[in-house]
Structure formats: structure tokens, C-alpha cells
User: Fold these one by one.
Assistant:
Number 1:
Amino acid sequence: MLLSLAQSDRAAFSPPDAGDGWSTLDQIVSTLTLQAGFNTSIVVVGTTLLGLAAGIIGVFALLRRRALVCDALSHATLPGMALAFITAAVLGADGRTLPVLLSGAAVSGVLGVLAIQLILRCTRLREDAAIGIVLSVFFGIGIVLLSVIQQMPTGNAGGLRQFIYGQTAAMSVGDAVLMGAIALLACLATVLLLKEFAVVCFNDAFARVSGWPVSLVDLGIMALVVLVTVAGLQAVGLLLVVAMLIVPPVAARFWTERLWLLVIVAGVIGGLSGYLGAATSALLPRKPAGGVIVLTSGVIFVISMVCAPARGVLAASWRRFRLRLRIAGEHILEEAFEHRGGDGQASLSAAQLRALATLRGWPRGLRRMLVSLLRLRGHLTATPEGGVVLTPQGHTAGARISRNHRLWEQYLISYADIAPSHVDWSVDQVEHVLSESLVRELEAALRDAGTEVPA
Amino acid sequence: MTVAYHRKPVLWDVDFDAPEQSLIAVVGPNGAGKSTLIKACLGLVPRASGQVEFWGSAYRSVRSRVGYVPQRESVDWDFPVSALDVVCMGRYRRIGWCRPVGRAHKRAAMECLERVGLATLAKRQISQLSGGQQQRVFLARALAQDADLYFMDEPFAGVDAATERAIIDVLRELRSSGRTVICVHHDLQTVPEYFDHALLLNMRVVAAGPVSEVFTSQNLHRTYGGRLTLLSEAAEAVARSG
């Protein structure tokens, strides 16, 4: 495969006539549609494919709880690259060719992971400590070796430094093809081995007992991670490549509860951040692509965390808020039902309503809102004096809640050995979530025990 | 068989022959090595010495006849799979490498979920199940393995009454169809009711045999009452000198 030379610091990577100012709409559109010149398009396509591959593989690294191991792996590539460079220079070859550097990176990255395993097996150190040690020591060795290279007669560590922060601009056609091949491999491996990966990630002990070669499957996942990491070194740099593996699956997790969907969504998010990130950095004057790509995925993560309908923060708060409203509304109905007068009319005066609000700690706004909501639902009507009167519909609802309350209370006293004086608080929480089948079960249980079932 | 963690032995000289077609309880105090016994049998932890034979042959050659229910806490229940997906994992080995789960296997997995009374929750993500339901999902997965011998690690731990009934029904069903179940169990009261045989364990085998014979107050006292001080001290000594 055609691999480019790792080019020096200043590569030709800027959109036509992009000065220091902001881009025009034309430039934005042409960059996004891959018409902003050959170099820019190659970079955008290459990072998109890399993001896709990293997102997919990252799902399994994350589910196998190897997120931090990936970080150690990427840091541990530096001494390998430096040693490969030195060795090639001593042998009289040009150490700056990509295949040489990346082979060195892969070897020392894998050595770093093995070192973690060795520390875990031989000592009682925990995994986070082992990872911290390996990550920093390997990176430290790399930094020292870089300074050695700087002092060599042939040396210029500049070509190597780009692997720390990444230099997307140095991406050639061959590199983009390589990214494509890796993305294809990642897709293929996932399609073929999804269930093997799933069972090992979910429950490795069970997988081993039922006869799966867990170490082999682990090795496969790790090999894919190494491949993506090494391929990503040039584009986003070893400090940030772990973000391409981890952020997309974490963001994707907010959107779905299904593994195969998770893989697809993570791949799409990874690809999208690669695409948008590379395009944005091409448009912004002198902004490093690696950082912009990771920032893009970070933005997608925050959006997912807040907005995703399945597990997002907003959705969860909304559900909690609705439950709180419902329970509070039911308290009003219950209270009114229990204050029904001799004529059977269930109502609360303004003073009683205020007392209830004080007891429950409702602010004034919430109290008004509850009354309006219940009116909208036709459960009650407001009196001119500020009190409320239950409609027949509200009366039925109040009766049901009140009965559930007593059922559950009776059950707790007779079964759970809870003192009657302590029963009320927990009853308050539970009575609103009793399903009909649970109510029937409660009735049966109380009847069996010969306790009186509340009417 | 002897098992050691970090040179500290946790099981000494366990010699036990499990009778076929029976429900066997492994009973003992915390730290007695109950789970370790099961894991060592299944090759999940290395044995310091000794061997385990299944129907006279090594474990490797009879893997498909052995089922396993791990402790519920041993996995991350936030994993993005449904109850049915987990049960299907019991069929994976049968399906083989690189092939998707076919319709017939899904149907078989569904039947296993029905047997533990969870058919209606098949599509639910596993973190949205109660603890007892999660335990039943694990049991259904073991049923899907369709094994002759089952190892279960505390299947009754922290479950509701409905789950306990469902599990014991399944265990009895297994026995009547000729299977053997070895179960780590912590509730002494229910041992005589649920199980045929018992293995009383506290770092070594205190007693083993039919429940009616070994479940005596004397044996139980030897298992639970008064730590086995001599044995613990010896273990400490080994650890120190190591």
C-alpha cells in the first residue's frame, strides 16, 4: 500500500485563499461537499473513515472497560516511534517513513498493554494505578528519546513531534485508503463477531465456561484497537486519539439500549465528528484538526447527554417532573375526597388547600399549576372563594387513591412489621404507583391473611 | 483439590463426588470458599493441586454438557441488551462462530424465558428488570444451554418470593428430567426443603452426603460455629512465608 512520507510541520493544507479571516459561505459549502481542492478533500474523507472505525471499535473497548487501557496504549506508542526512528537512522535508512514509525508505535503500544497485565498479575496494585504508571513512564521514555533524536546529526525531532498533537494535513491518498481499509475491517469484524464480542464483554466468566476462547476474542478486540490507535496517531495525535475511541460510543449510549444500534450510532457519531471536525479546521485559520475533531465529538456528546430521548438528562428530568406533578395532583384529590361533607360533596376550602401546600412543601406557583391542571383534566372545579370542588370524575379518582393508600397501609402493618406510626411516609410514595394487578394481589394477600380489606 | 489466591489457600483438600440426578447445596459461612469451589471446578480460577472430572473425563471435553449461573453482581446490568438477548447467549456456542442468532434459537430462548415466567419482559433492557427478574434471566440463559450438570452461584441471593418459587420449580423440573444441579446456597432454613444433598464447606469439606444425614446440628456447628482457627492460622503462616 502506498504510504506517504511523514511530512514536515508545514503542509499545504488550507482552503483556497483562506487568509486569517473567517470563511465565506462558498468556502464552507465547497469544503463540506469535498470540492475545496484535492488535499482538503483527502483529509476530510480520511478522518471521516477513521472516525467511523474508531467509533465502532470503541464500543467494544468501552463495554469491556478498556477505556483507560486505550489511553495507556496510545501514550505508550511514543517510545516505539522514537526507537524505530533511531534504529533506522543508525542503519542508514530514513527513519521518517510512516511504515517504520507506525510499526514501532504498534510494538511499544502493545508492550505497554502487556506491562499493565504483568503488573496486575504479579502485584496487588489496582488497575487504575497500573495504567497510570505505564502511561506516564512510557510517555516519559518517549520524551527523553525525542531529545536524544534532536541531538543526533541526522536528527530533527520535528517530524516525530507531529504524532503527539497530530497533523491531519499530512494525510495522503494512501493514508485515506488505509483509513478506508481499517473502517471496512472494523465493520466486517463487527458484523461477523457481534455475538462473540457481546458475550465476552457482558460476562466473560460465562463465555469461558460455555467454551468461547475469551483470550482470543479479547486479543481480537485489542488488535483492532491498536490498529485504529496507530492509524489515528498521524491524524489526531497520540494525546487525543483515545477520545475518538471513547467519546462516540459514550455519546451513542444515550440514544439506544440495543447493542447493534449502539455500534451503528457510535460509528455515525465518530464519522460525523471526523467529517465536521476536519472540515471546520480546514476553514478556520491555523486550527489543528485533531483538537477540532475531538471538540466536535465533545459537542455531540454534550448534545446527546442533554437531549437524547432515551437516557438524556432533559428526558429524565421531564419524566421525574411529570411524576411529581401527578403525585401532587393525586394528593389534592385524595385530600378533597377524605374531606367530603355529609352530602358526599368532596371539596377543599382555600385555607385547607393552603395548609396542604404547606404540609407538602409546594411553592405557591406549583399549587396554582396543580389546580389548573386538574381543572383541565376535569377532575375538579374552582370555587370563587379560591377553594376546589371535585367533579364526579375527580371523586372516582380520589376514592381509588384513598383506597390504595389504605390497602398498602394495611399490608405494611400486617406483613412488613412496620409500626403504624411510621407507615404513612412510605405509603405516600407507593400508593401512586400501584398497578391494578398489584392492587388485586394486595387484596388477595390481605384476604388470605384474614385481615379486613378496605372497602 | 486445593485452591489458593495470592498463595493464601482458600480451599483445602476438597474431595467430593456429586451424585447424578439430584439437587446439591453447597453451604458454608462467608469466606468459606463456596464460590471459589464452583469457579475452580469450571476452570475459572487456577487450582493449586488436584483435579476435577466430569463423568470420568476432563472438563474441556464435556463443556457443552455443563451450564453455569454466575452471581448476579458479577456483571454490569447497564449493558445495552434485552432480556431475550441475554438468554440467547446460552445458545451462542451451539450456533457457532460468525453466524447470527437464527429464528429457531430465538424461539428456544423465548421458551426458556417462559419457563421462568418472564416471557412478557423479553424485549426489556436488562437494567429495567428487578433483581429477582435479573436472576431469572440468568437462570433462563442456563436453561438455554440445555446442559446435564448445572453450577449455580447463589441463585437465591436477594430475590423476592415469586422468584424464589420460580427458581425452585425450575430446579425440580431439571431434576425430574435427569439433570444435576450444584447450588451455592446461603439460607440454611430452606436447605432440607429444596435440596437432596448438601456439601458443608468451610475452607475444607466438613460433611457431605444426603441432607437427612449430614444436616445435623453438630455438623452445622462445626461449619459455622467457632472459626476454624487452626486452619486460618496455618493459611496466614503460608501467606507470610510466601
Number 2:
Amino acid sequence: MTYEEFVNSRLPALLRYALMLSGDPHTAADIVQETMIRVQLKWRRVSRADAVEPYVRRMLTNVYLDWQRGSWLRRVTLRAVPDEPPPTPDHAERSADRDQVWALLAGLPRRQRAAVVLRYYEGLADQEIADVLGCAVGTVRANISRALATLRDTAVPAHTGGGS
Amino acid sequence: MDEDELRAVFARHEHLTPAAEPLKAAIREGYRRRWRRRLVLRSVGAAAVALSVPVPVPLSTVTPPALRPGPLTFVLAGIDRPPGADVARSDTVLIAHVPAARDKVYLVSVLRDSYVSIPGHGRDKLNAAYAYGGFPLLQQTLRSDFGIAVDGGAVADFTGLQRVVDSIGGVDMYVDEDTVSIHIGWTKDGRQKPPYLGTRPVPGVTPQRYRVGYQHLTGWQAVDFVRQRVLLPHGDADRQRHVRQFLTALLTRARSLLSDPQRASAFLDSLQQAITVDTGGMALLELLRAVDKVGTPIGLQAATSTLVADGMVGEVLTPDGTSLLAAVAHDDVDAWIAAHPGAVS
């Protein structure tokens, strides 16, 4: 597979994954851009991996986990365009509780959020998640249950009805 | 909070995913910038190692260092280390010279049997300089004998050269005389065997042949072709012309790579892994681009006449040969060619 083929077929999926991780379209684009620059620079090594996409997903996850620690971030994220406000359609009220969950996800520690996204959005098994995050399976499960507990505790008092 | 609800939250926000197409251009641009910066860091790093002094790394620089002004002179040496031998001799010595005007590139061959004064070793054949003192002594010899200031160079052995040629998918070149290999031949049942012992044919072995015309040569073929000397009518002079033609073909083949950052990077990597390159602190890519820009190299040979003395056969530079090397030293090759019509080959 050439780099071009990889980009053409997998870029949309990587962008979706980055969006779920970061919760914000601009940050998602920045994370993917940074990841793909690294992928292209090391393409020969990347393309030799047994499975290219998981390898790139791991690189992307690391970029996300390191995102605000690096000093280069400020340079990259300085932009004039403000974040798009979330769309407010007619059924805004009905989906308010779900958007609240989306907002709560953003407040989770990054590793917890990454584990949640990998299990419930990417549909990976716990062992695969452990490989992506470079930790033990037990740590993955602990992260996910802690994340779910936080979401439950915070979401329930605000909305006792439980959605629709 | 159940798990299906979480899945639904993710699915509902998929529509926020940024578009892929506009991002591709941003990735390309970011990659180009990063890649150029990496080249700078690499060449600065190499220079720092060479000088053994710490060099502050200009992180903000995004353009490669400018090529040094003035003429550029590089020595390309092809070395042969016969199996079992612990010294290698430079079988091919070629001076690549770009005048200060940067409008041409000359490839000047010096025959390996040319007698020169090797500092510390008296008069000997040029190919002995490499055996005595490696590339530095070869460089020193060119300076003390002819006043040629060498900016850098490359040393390649047969294996390295073969790898470089294969990494770019072979070369297309015009073979200007039928050439029979004394190194590679084939038996009737298809096994590879040397077809000659010295200059005597081995019965039952058909030598590899390179026929006149445009030929596509793979790595081993190209190397075998440029090695051939003893069966050619003019010996080393013929071979040196073949080497120049081969280098020209290699540059032509590399040309398409240099405009594409990704493939150029892979090519430079393979080049630096396969052969020893000293760019004199300048970025290799910029050097190759500068050479590439001025078009087809102009081939010249430092003329010699054969000398037999004490049972030894050698070559002595003729006045024309000496003046050509002096012209390289003084960046005056144009005028030399004007005064010696017919010398270009």
C-alpha cells in the first residue's frame, strides 16, 4: 500500500476517531494533521508494520494524549476562526441530555476518554485497547469503569428521567 | 448511563467530523516544511560530528543551508577490494566540478594508472593513494599535485553502487561499444561462472555481453559494465568514458526523484546507506539539485600517454592532461575546452 492509498482510504475514519477523542472538530483536524505528517515522514517504517491502520491509530492516540503537554501545540492551534457552535436543531431539547453526555466526555481524563472511545466507538476488544494505549488489560477496564461511573454520577442528578 | 446510549452519543456527533479533502493540502504542506527542516538538522548534525564540536541547531530555519559560493569540486572514487584483500584501491577517480557560475557540471576522469606524487610516498600510481591513505590522501594528492581544492566526495564499492542503482529501478543508458564481461558469464546449464581467467577465455562459459544501443541495466549489470577494462580497445580510457556515461544516466534517472520530497528522501537514504558521502557540510539534496539544474554533465578525460619503465607499465599525464587539471583548479574549464576542441566525450 502506498502512502497516497492509505490517506485516500483511511483519512475520513481517522478524522472521526480524532473527533471522538477530542470532542472538537478543529482539535481533531490538528491532531490528524500532526499524525499524518509523522506518518508520511516515517512511511517506510509505518508501511512495514503488520497492520498499518492500528499502527497509525496508535500514533494518533499518542498525539492526542500528548496534545497539550507539547509546547509546539500553541503554534499549531493559534487560529483566528472560533470553534463552531454545536448545531441547535428543533429537537435540541430532546437531545439535551445526550449533548450533556458529550460535554461530560470532554471533561474526562484523556486516557479514560481514549479507552471509552476505543471500546464504544471503534468497537475494539479490551486487549486491542491495551495495545493501543500501551498498558495492561486490567488498566483498560479500570479506566473504562471509572469513566462510566463519572458519567453516571454527573449525568443522573441533572436529568432524572433518563433521556427520551 | 448505559453503553448503547454512549454509542448513540458518538454516532450522533459524527456529523461534526471535519472534511478530509481540505486537510490533505495542509498535511502535504506541513510535511514539506518538516521534511526540509529535518534535512537541515541532519546535515548540521553530520557537520557537528565531523568537526567534533557542538553546533547550535537552528530550529527556526526552514530552508536548507545555501550552497557555498564559488566553484564546487567533488571527488568520486570507485573502489575495489578484492576478496581476501585488506586494502582497497581506487579503480576509478572522477572529479565532478561545477564552476562558480553554476551553469555546467564537468566530469573529469583521471586514469587510475596515472603517475602522480603522493605526499609521503613518492611517485606512484594514482590508485595507490587510496590504498596508502584512503580518501584523505587521495584528496591531498589532488591538491598538492594539481592545486585542486576538494570540497567533498563520495566513495562507492561495487556492492554499494549496485544497491543505489537497484533502489532507483535500474538505469537507461547508451552502450557505445560492444563490451564483453570478464567477470560474469554463464555455463550451458545456466550457472554463473567467470568467463575469463585474466584475458584467457574459459571454455564452455558464455560471457555476459553489453551490445551497442540503448540498454536498460539493472544494478549488477551496470556495475559489471562499468568494471570492464582489459578487453576494451582503449582499456581504462574506454572504461572511464563508460563510467561518465553511467553517472550521467544515474543523474537522469534520479532527476524525477528529486522533485518529489517523499521519493527523494528515500533515494537519499539509500544513497547514504550504500555509499560513503562527504558533502562538505552542504545538504546533499541541494547539491544534487544544483547539479541537476545545469543539465547533462560534460565528460572529459585527463589525457595520458603510456610509459613503460623498469618492466612496469603506467600512464603519464600529457601537457594537455596536466593543463586540464590545472583548469579545474582555477575554475577555467570553459577556456580549456575552447582551446581543445574534440576533447569532450
